Amino acid sequence: MPDTRQNSLRAGPDGTGRFGEFGGRFVSETLMPLILALEDEYERAKDDPTFWAEMDDLWEHYVGRPSPLYHASRLTEHLGGAKVYLKRDELNHTGAHKINNVLGQIILARRMGKTRIIAETGAGQHGVATATVCAKFGLQCVVYMGAHDVERQAPNVFRMRLLGATVVPVTSGRGTLKDAMNDALRDWVTNVRDTFYCIGTVAGPHPYPAMVRDFQSIIGKEVRWQMEKAEGRLPDTIVAAIGGGSNAMGLFHPFLDDPSVRIIGVEAGGKGVDDRMEHCASLTGGRPGVLHGNKTYLLQDDDGQILEGYSISAGLDYPGIGPEHSWLHDIGRAEYVSITDKEALEAFQLCCALEGIIPALEPSHALAHVMKIAPALPREHLIVMNMCGRGDKDIFTVAKHLGVEVKA
Ligand SMILES: *Cc1c(COP(=O)(O)O)cnc(C)c1O
């Protein structure tokens, strides 16, 4: 349950959904009643033990939580410094952290009597998680996906269809994730009565950033007791990859009030963070603006046009970042760095070879940063990195970059 103590960094957002100057609710009047009804229901559910009992039951029996906290001993030895632990969220059902949040939102939708779930998806991971939970509950599922992404992510499109979802290719704008999110919002206002919009990261208008964070916080809460059990104390550094920022917020949030814990978010540096803009580092290479109903750091050109961004990892190419990260960045509580495609690919291969774990390209970015900092840290220094997804989906991309031909 979220902490509402005063002077706590975990207390946000305020009543208007702001984290400092970030977040809020920049939506049309037609959307407002829907957002308020959702906020109302979430506030009620949050304090209702039966809601959390249902979550806990499904987290355990359907998702497979708690995910292990694993000491990566060969990686630690290889790096020769800090002791590295991996939080194994790639072992969740559907292979990533996304389902933690989807489960929460869909249980909420059922409490509200909604029968039709809509979602946006970029690489398809959130779409697959949503289609999965909808199948489990017999709910209608419509997933908006940029036409360009539908082509690039054919296996995930097929998965969603197998799971019974309708995938709608979005051709407006440039046909990518940003446009899919706009179309999903449009669908929501036209299908008010029966539809629930399930957002896949800590973005969107209030209460989404806080709600998604609360659902993903299961990651950090487990790390706290698992680390206590393994080492008898808190970790010294926690590290996670950032697309929109949900797996990172889930790991970070339970540690915000522990000043001894260093917090590092890793953005996708693509081909390098410079003015060619071939990256997705919203915090290290963007500036504040408004997108998808909230104020946050965004990739934009001089005229305020939102830029698409680029990363080897499709799951990281959202042009914004959750507003709470923007605030944590500005107050200095968390550090944000970027890692290039090339560095992520090296980390990917090292993890396969030393630990027998094929990581997704997204957490490979976090691992690449761990590889940079661990060697110079003392052996007692404890690092926890969130292994937020498995890499089966990425082997063809990796093969291509390594110049290897692999037929599906
Ligand atoms: C979707 C995804 C991400 C990026 O989303 P966040 O909201 O930043 O967590 C990162 N890793 C994996 C494995 C994903 O599927």
Shape: globular
Q: What is the share of helical residues?
A: 40-55%
Tally of structural domains: 2
Q: If helices are DSSP runs of H or I spanning 4 or more residues, what is the number of helices?
A: 16
Using DSSP, what is the number of strands?
Answer: 14
Beta-strand share of residues = 15-25%
CATH architecture heading of the largest domain: 3-Layer(aba) Sandwich
Q: Whole-Å distance between the termini?
A: 44 Å
CATH topology name of the largest domain = Rossmann fold
- SSE order, as H and E? EEHHEHEHEHEHHEHEHHEHEHEEHEHHEH
The low-confidence runs, each spanning 5 or more residues with pLDDT under 50, are none
Distinct ligand kinds: pyridoxal-5'-phosphate
Describe the 3D structure:
- There is one protein chain.
- This protein is α/β, with parallel strands linked by helices and 408 residues long.
- The chain has two domains: 158 residues, 3-Layer(aba) Sandwich (Rossmann fold); 217 residues, Rossmann fold.
- Helices cover 42% and strands 17% of the residues.
- The strands form four sheets. The chain has a six-stranded mixed β-sheet, with helices on both faces. A four-stranded parallel β-sheet has the order 7-6-5-8, sandwiched between helices. The protein has a two-stranded antiparallel ribbon with strand order 1-2.
- Helix 3 packs across helix 14.
- The longest helix has 15 residues.
- The structure holds pyridoxal-5'-phosphate (PLP).
- InterPro entries: Trp_synth_b_CS (IPR006653), Trp_synth_beta (IPR006654), Trp_synth_beta/beta-like (IPR023026), TrpB-like_PALP (IPR001926), TrpB-like_PALP_sf (IPR036052).
